[in-house]
């Protein structure tokens, strides 16, 4: 059975159905207080590197290459530890990955959620076509 993982914007009001709320961004969201975010965990280590995030810029034409590069980053030891932590949280119940990104379809949290569901990034990124 796949873990129950969903993705949402951190600016959206928390819902009781969110389960464990995890911010998966490297940078704290602008204008948001810790109280309003209602986070359980801030997992910066699971976010894309600053270099990759800047290169990507949420450009739709770079999405597939971004996903490939991000999966490669997720296979790095520090990031794998973060993934293991998130997988453990997901085993305990619903996990909601949060991001400040405006367009969830272009956000890294979809790639992260897929890696957590699939048990992916075991060292070799999956190809995306």
- Which class do the helix and strand fractions yield? alpha/beta
Indicate the radius of gyration in whole angstroms. Answer: 14 Å
Number of strands: 4
Q: How many strands, which pairing sense, and closed or not: the largest β-sheet?
A: 4 strands, parallel
Following the backbone from N to C, one meets helices and strands in this order, namely EEHEHHHEH
Describe what this molecule looks like in 3D.
It is a single chain. The protein has 129 residues and is α/β, with parallel strands linked by helices. The protein has one domain. The protein has helices spanning 34-37, 50-56, 63-74, 77-92, 109-118; strands spanning 5-9, 20-23, 41-42, 95-99. A four-stranded parallel sheet has the order 1-4-2-3. Helix 1 links the parallel strand 2 (20-23) and strand 3. It is globular and about 35 Å long. It comes from Streptomyces lycii. Residues 1-21 are annotated as: Disordered.
List keywords for this structure.
129 residues; alpha/beta; disordered C terminus; 12% strand; 38% helix; DUF488 family protein
Quick take:
Residues 1-21 are annotated as: Disordered. This protein is an alpha/beta fold and 129 residues long.
Strand and helix layout:
Layout: E1 5-9, E2 20-23, H1 34-37, E3 41-42, H2 50-56, H3 63-74, H4 77-92, E4 95-99, H5 109-118
Parallel strand pairs: 1-4, 2-3, 2-4
Biased composition (Basic and acidic residues): 1-12
Region (Disordered): 1-21
Protein name: DUF488 family protein
């Amino acid at each position: 059975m796949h873990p129950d993982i969903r993705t949402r914007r951190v600016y959206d009001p928390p819902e009781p159905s969110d389960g464990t709320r995890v911010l998966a961004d490297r940078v704290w969201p602008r204008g948001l207080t810790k109280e309003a975010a209602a986070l359980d965990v801030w997992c910066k280590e699971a976010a894309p590197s600053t270099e990759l995030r800047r290169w990507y810029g949420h450009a739709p034409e770079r999405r597939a290459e971004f996903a490939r590069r991000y999966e490669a980053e997720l296979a790095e030891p520090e990031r794998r530890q973060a993934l293991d932590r998130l997988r453990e949280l997901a085993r305990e119940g619903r996990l909601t990955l949060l991001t400040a990104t405006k367009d969830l379809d272009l956000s890294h949290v979809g790639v992260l959620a897929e890696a957590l569901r699939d048990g992916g990034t075991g060292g070799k990124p999956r190809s995306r076509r």
